[in-house]
Every structure is written in C-alpha cells, then in structure tokens.
Amino acid sequence: MKESKTDPRVIRTRKLIMDSFIELSGKKEFKDITVKDITTEAMINRATFYYHFEDIYDLLEKALSEVLLINLDSKLYEKSELIEETFVNIFEAITNFQISLSNRCHRGYEDTIARIIIEQLEVLFYKMLVKENKEERKELKITAIMLSWGMYGASVEWRRTDKTVGADEFIKEAIPFITNGVQFLNRKT
After folding, report:
1. In sequence order, what are the residues at sequence separation of 6 or more whose Cβ sits closer than 8 angstroms to the Cβ of residue 2?
2. What is the pLDDT of residues 48-60, one digit of tens each?
3. How far apart are CA 113 and CA 106, in angstroms?
4. How far is residue 49's CA from residue 32's CA, in Å, rounded to a whole number?
5. Of 95, 132, 133, nearest to 117 (Cα)?
6. Please, how many CA atoms are within 13 Å of residue 100, restricted to the half-sphere of its CB?
7. Max Cα separation, the chain?
8. DSSP states of 92-137 as a string?
C-alpha cells in the first residue's frame, strides 16, 4: 500500500533524494550521475528512489522546478500587479537562480533549465494576466508566452554581457515597453 505523498516521512525522503542529487551535481556532470550514486549518497534503496521519481531526468526536472519556484515565490507574485517592481523582482529571481546553478552545477543542464524557467514563467505570467483582466482569453496565453521567453532571453543576454550593470538596472530599460503593451492589452477588455 502506497503512503500519501503528504506523509512527513515521504516529504523528508523526497527532500533527501533531491538534496543528494544537488550535492552530487556540484561534483559530477549530470550525464555521469547514476541512480546508484544518488541512492548511495542518500542512503536509501533503489525502490525508494523509484517510488518518488520515474528516473533521473524526472528528478532533475522536479529538483530544478522546486528550486526555481522557491526563488520565484510564485504565490507572492500571483497576487502582484504587472508593474515595474514585479518585473524587476521576477528578473532578479531567475538571474539569481541561473547564477546559483552555474556556480553549483556543471554544463549539460542548459536546455532543461531553459525549459523549466520558461514554463514556470509562462504559468506565472498567465495567472497574473488573467487576474488583471478578470477573464481568460487566447491573447493572454500568447502574451504570457512572449513575456516568459522575453524574460528568459533577457536573462541569458544579461549573463553574457560583462555585468557592469546589475540585473535590476538591465531589465528596467525594457520595462516601459513591456508595461505599455500590458496596459494596451488591459484596455482591449
């Protein structure tokens, strides 16, 4: 009989597996990390690992998603308005997330990280747009997609530059154009 995923023991074990994976990812390339490495580090058996995760790729995605959600504090942003401060805070959260990963992880994560960031931002922006517009509309979904890809693309560009300008100042230059577009969308209702 499977235990509930909300059982504190299940939550602790899941966190132990994720922490072990994150620890190993600081020492090895992702392609070199095995389930055996993780189970040894976490001091659990393979069956326990597979109870929580389908495979190592499932673990990677869930671990990165959880870390990003903690950085984004999406519950807080879902209640916010799409104003300059919100965009700056979201941008700083994703750039800090990427910096912390690049300091702790080896190469090979870029595509997975990009997909996770873009997906999480898309959901976050869509919820914020629906809240502001008080209805779900097709153009809101498209706008959320554009905002998420744009925010991710801007973070990549900021990391590629010499970083003489902080992340907050970097994104502030584009915010008037972003907010004008969002305000235009809100006027269409």
Report:
1. 51
2. 999 999 999 899 8
3. 12
4. 17
5. 95
6. 13
7. 57
8. HHHHHHHHHHHHHS-SS-HHHHHHHHHHHHHHHHHHHHHHHHTS--
**Token couple for 112:** 């997975």
Single pTM value for the model: 0.72
Task: Supply φ then ψ for residue 105, to 5 degrees.
Answer: -115, 150
For residue 94, give the nearest of 151, 30, 165, 179 by alpha carbon: 151
CA distance 140 to 137: 5
How is residue 27 annotated by DSSP?
T
CA dihedral 148, 137, 73, 89 (to 10 degrees): 50
Residue type present at position 134: K
**For residue 20, which amino acid is it?**
S
pLDDT at position 16, please? 93
Look-up of token digits 């305000």: 183
Query: Is the confidence at residue 111, as pLDDT, over 80?
Result: no
Residue 80 near residue 86 (C-beta atoms within 8 A): yes
What is the distance between the alpha carbons of residues 66 and 64, in angstroms, rounded to a whole number?
A: 5
What are the pLDDT digits (tens) for 78-88? 667 888 888 88
